[in-house]
Amino acid sequence: MNQRVLNTYLPDASAPGSLSVGMGLTSNSVYRLIDAEDIKKILRPRKSFTHKGSYGHVLVVAGQEQTMGAAILCATASLYAGAGLTTAAIPATGLTALNTAIPEVMYLNRSELQSMVKLDKYSAVAIGPGLSTSTEALELLEKVLRLHRSLVLDADALNILAKEPELFNLLPAGSILTPHVKEFDHLFGEHTTWFHRIQTAREKARQYKIVILLKNQYTFIVDAESNVYINPTGNPAMAQGGMGDVLTGIVAACLAEGYQPKDAAILGSYVHGKSGDQLAKERFVVTASQVTKHLPFVFKEIVKS
Question: Hey, how many other C-beta atoms are within 10 angstroms of the C-beta on 117?
Answer without folding.
Answer: 6
